[in-house]
Amino acid sequence: MVAIPVTRSISIDSDEIEESFTRAGGPGGQGVNTTDSAVLLRFNVWQSPNLPDLVKHRLMDLAGSRMTKDGVLVLRSEGARSQLLNRQEVRERLIEMIKEATFVPRKRKPTKPSKAAKARRVDGKVKRSTVKAGRGRVKLD
After folding, report:
1. Are strands 3-5 and 11-13 parallel, antiparallel or unpaired?
2. CB atoms < 10 A from the CB of 74, how many?
3. Residue 127, CB half-sphere, CA atoms under 13 Å: how many?
4. What is the rounded CA–CA span in Å between residue 112 and residue 137?
5. Dihedral through CA 52, CA 58, CA 59, CA 60, nearest 10?
6. pLDDT of 129 higher than 80
7. What is the CA radius of gyration of the chain?
8. In terms of C-beta density within 10 A (0-12 exposed, 13-18 middle, 19 or more buried), how is residue 37 classed?
9. Is the Cβ–Cβ distance between 38 and 76 less than 8 Å?
């Protein structure tokens, strides 16, 4: 059981990650038909004891369609020719997703425009309306 560090306070046990290997499309030459180089990573978010509940909820939102109804995150990598590089790439993507889920966005403080900003806006509207009013038909008295 090897711990994979994600942040200072969060690490994941390698036993929590389930990897399976399949044949991949794309680059590989003649070996693409014989080697299982694509990696399918499955990580059960809800049963992970190392993730706080808030991180689990944010990770569910971030994952979108990559999350199953049972709370299992499924990631696939088949970009490289070798199984080792695909394993590293898919694990890095998992770690990055968890790191992104740990970030708590700041609450927006609602602000109001100042009196000077309101006055500038009204002055601009008045000027624009006088310009437009001058474009009308000319009346001959």
Report:
1. antiparallel
2. 14
3. 6
4. 40
5. 110
6. yes
7. 28
8. buried
9. yes
Per-residue pLDDT reduced to its tens digit, 21-43: 887 776 666 666 667 778 889 99
Question: Among 11, 25, 2, which residue's Cα sits nearest to residue 94?
Answer: 11
Q: Cα(42)–Cα(21) distance, rounded to whole angstroms?
A: 11
Please report the DSSP string for 58-111 in residue order: HHHHHHGGGB-TTSEEEEEE--SSSHHHHHHHHHHHHHHHHHHHHPPPPPPPP-
How large is the greatest C-alpha to C-alpha distance in the chain, in angstroms?
96
Taking only the tens place, the pLDDT of each residue in 68-91 is: 888 889 998 887 878 888 889 998
CA dihedral 71, 46, 102, 76 (to 10 degrees): -40
Chain position carrying tokens 């994952």: 63
Close Cβ partners of 82 (under 8 Å, ≥ 6 residues apart)? 37
Q: In one letter, which amino acid is 87?
A: R
Amino acid at 47: Q
